[in-house]
Amino acid sequence: MTARSTLGALAVGLLLGSFSLGVMGADPLQALSSIFLGSFASAYGFGETVTKAIPLMLAGTGLALAFRGRLWNIGAEGQLLAGAVAATGAALSLKDLLPGFLMVPALFAAGAAGGAAWGLLAGWLKTRFQVNEVIGSLMLNYIAAEAVQYLIYGPWKGATQFGFPYTDNFCAAATLPVIAGTRVHAPTLAVALAAAGGAFWALRRMRFGFEVRALGGNPEAARYAGIDPARTALILMALSGGLAGLAGAGEAAGIHHHLTYPWAVSSGYGYSAIIVAWVAGLNPLLVVPSALFLGGILVGGDAIQTSMGLPASAISLFNGILLLSLMGGEFFARRRPQRSPSPLAGEGRDGGPGHK
Amino acid sequence: MNASFGLGAETLSRSLAAATPLLLGTLGEITAERSGVLNLGVEGMMAAGAVAGFSAAHATGSPWIGLAAAIGAGAALALVHAFFSVTLKANQIVCGIALTMLGLGISGVWGRAFVGTPLACRFQAVLWSRDPVFYLAVVLTAALSWLLFRTRWGVAVRSVGENPLAADAAGLPVDRIRILCTAFGGAMAGMAGGYLSLVYIPSWIEGMTAGRGWIVIGLTIFAGWKPWKAFAGALLFGGIDVSQYLFQDHCSPNFLKMLPYAATLLALLASGRSLHGASAPPAALAVPYRKGER
Questions:
Q1: CATH T-level topology, domain B12-279
Q2: Cβ contacts of B85 on chain A, cutoff 8 Å
Q3: Which residue in A222, B132, B155, B168 has a CA-CA distance of 20 to 30 Å to A277?
Q4: Least CB-CB distance to A327: which of B98, B101, B294?
Q5: Does ipTM exceed 0.90?
């Protein structure tokens, strides 16, 4: 899909989205302008946009990789929560054991491991028991959210939180530094940018990237070429889960400084990351601007909730329309002659992603 | 003795009520998938059906008009999916995710005015103090099973889902059949959502679908795309849903809330090995059909 058709589809999506808010009783132009004025027009707003873009970048990069290999991981939300849980566990249990400068690396390692484990669980169910990864990873999202609530109301409930269902706050060495005047936790942003760059490079230059692209292009031919789809699927689930887990570690250590309600740890980042990956055309480098764009919509969504009295689900509606516009845009892009086939095209003749 | 019988009857009654929306949704998804269209937007269509049903019943005072509105809302959203995935041949997985976002968004925005409002009108109970929609679901199970496996219409739907090229060669309008089956699936998902807001929780709570749409997609696989097995599966999951309330004194509520989702995984795990032979998915599931391409 060309850049021009993506931008065109996004413009149509934004218009249709704000029009739908208009049908629901809001002034559409005012809604659209408040979304973007709120998220990009002020230093504060842009800081918030970048803050929300961080988890979207990490999870979106992982999903771009997975979708490239036709692995439909819809579980970034749960994998993000698993990463936040693992990072919290590390922060609380290691606070007197590790020297301060090792805390942050340990947190990120724990977050990546937690997310990767949660992703691998869905991958294992798929490769070992043929449990479709869409359903498997989605069910694990719900289970992860309940597990977080169990922990914060139960065994991990903090002694110092005045009865709120949070864990105790992380020690100073386990909280991430922020860019002055914003909530942008710089270490996670650096990790996110590195992950996007690394994934881009791996996809282009590494043997593994070739295998992923081969499976995404023509699974049958890839199998004849000796590529093991089960092995690749497991690696992709671990990678995309691990990246979402890093996002969870960043949210816990960079924003909240404790584990809190699952819907506060992740306000649907795992689902928005699906759109991030799709807007980016499954190109990890383009995930960076795409995450900023979606981050802006999330910040603007918060702004119109307070200023125009729209419910939080207005953004879900908006995002759904945006994603459908992109699907429509692809159709028109596909009808023009192209130099290389798009990885986004509808499933090919033998590549049905159905319940296999 | 009497008390435990009362408890048993109460549990059974609640299980049937919890099973009804799952059954309705699964029957619809079976039809869509039998024709080769994977619609992952069940959760969104259910949510839209729930809000449409509630607002129509609230406005008119008739639960039947509510149910009709729910059916219409589900079918309308399904037609969006059909347009993108059948007509435009887009990726059905991503389309379904978009549909879920759309439906949940519509339900939240539209339902905002009703938050916490109880529904004044109810269905009159028919037989054994059960609501009529439950019996409708049983009748629809039998009807769909007969239609799919005993009629020419069913052969057409299944052949379009198994081998669209051959079906096309035999003169069947592949895309039109798929669009109709998708719309029927949406109507059923909408009815399932309407059941939630009109019968199961007759009050408006945002997010009342609570992942049931995804459980429906799991049940479709679990049932091997067969209506009567969907009936059995829905009863099983209705029972699991209700068992949350039976064990609430003994176990953390959070673990109990995990039960339906964990059970879905277990059910798929158990049916994974049988995904070949008689319980295999339709061969052309989620594969768009392009005329003139092999």
A1: ABC transporter involved in vitamin B12 uptake, BtuC (1.10.3470)
A2: 346
A3: A222
A4: B98
A5: no
Asked if residue B217 has pLDDT above 70, the reply is: yes
Residue B276: band (very low, low, confident or very high) from pLDDT cuts 50, 70, 90: low
Distance separating alpha carbons of residues A148 and A141, to the nearest angstrom: 11
Interface test with A, best of B39, B80, B101 (most A CBs within 10 A): B101
Asked whether the beta carbons of A244 and A83 are under 8 A apart, the reply is yes
Kindly calculate the radius of gyration of chain A based on its CA atoms and give it in whole angstroms.
20
Nearest CB neighbour to A135, from listed B109, B206, B264: B264
Q: What is the DSSP letter of B86?
A: I
Is B30 in a helix, a strand, or coil? helix
pLDDT in tens, A259-294: 999 988 998 899 899 999 988 989 999 999 999 999
Taking the CA of residue B190 as centre, how many other CA atoms within 13 Å lie in the half-sphere pointing to its CB?
Answer: 26
Nearest Cα residue to B90 out of A326, A270, A158, A310: A326
Contacts of B123 (CB under 8 A, 6+ apart): B63, B64, B131, B132, B133, B198, B199
Q: Which residues of B touch A143 (CB under 8 A)?
A: 258, 261-262
Domains of chain A by residue range: 63-286
Distance (Å, whole) CA A313 – CA B111: 10
- CA-nearest of B17, B43, B6, B15 to B240 is B15
Query: How many C-beta atoms surround the C-beta of residue A331 within 10 A?
Result: 18
- Cα–Cα distances (Å) from A93 to A252, B96, B265, in that order, read 15, 41, 31
Full pLDDT tens readout for chain A, 356 residues: 677 778 888 888 888 888 887 776 777 888 788 888 888 888 888 999 999 999 999 999 999 999 999 899 999 999 999 999 999 999 999 888 888 788 899 999 999 999 999 999 999 999 988 888 888 998 899 999 999 999 999 889 888 888 788 888 888 888 888 888 889 899 999 999 999 999 999 998 888 888 888 888 888 888 888 888 889 999 999 999 999 999 999 999 999 999 999 988 998 899 899 999 988 989 999 999 999 999 998 888 887 777 777 777 888 888 888 888 888 887 877 766 544 445 554 443 333 343 33
Burial of A129 (0-12, 13-18, 19+ CB in 10 A): middle
Q: How many whole angstroms separate alpha carbon A148 and alpha carbon A152?
A: 6
Give dist(CA A89, CA A109) in Å, integer. 12
Closest Cα in chain B, distance from residue A314 (Å) = 5
- Cα–Cα distances (Å) from B251 to A19, A146, A156, B243, B263, in that order, read 47, 13, 17, 12, 17
What are the structure tokens assigned to A252, written together? 């816990």
Asked if residues B94 and A66 have their Cβ atoms less than 8 Å apart, the reply is: no
Q: Give, in order, the Cα–Cα distances in Å from B193 to each of A223, B60, B221.
A: 42, 18, 20
Interface residue of A23, A81, A317, A342 to substitute, partner B, most B CBs within 10 Å: A317
